[in-house]
Amino acid sequence: MMRKYQIPKFLEDTVTQAHYDRWLHRKAVAHVNRDRNRGNKTAINEEYKIAIHKAVSDSEGKDAYTGEELNWTLLSKYDNKASKKHGRNYKKQFALLPSVDHVGDGTGPVDFKICAWRTNDAKSDLPYKEFVELCTKIVKVANNRR
Predict the structure, then answer these.
(1) Predicted structure pTM score
(2) Backbone angles phi, psi at 105, to 5 degrees
């Protein structure tokens, strides 16, 4: 039986349908809450689930910005207490944790990309064009130091 949010083929041997459903629901709720706090009064969970599920399917398991393979086994494994206790070394283990990135600012039409937590953290709230400009500057300086 096909489900509304059928787990994408590339995830079938990695996470269960139930695990994916829980993750998808939690991500949709978190993003709806964030966007409502930013003034988006039309944000609804179902629309966000549809958009996040589409982004996951479109990703084919890879970071939308770097093309790196994401570590889908890390879904829902992050532990805040362990992170506080072990800091940077703990967080580093989750660099390729799949995360949901807003394409826009969260106040307009819902649109997401899937990327690594590390990428999403570096991108922060930058629009894609500004993120690429920043990365280009970083690479330019790094190349000049060689």
Answers:
(1) 0.91
(2) -95, 5
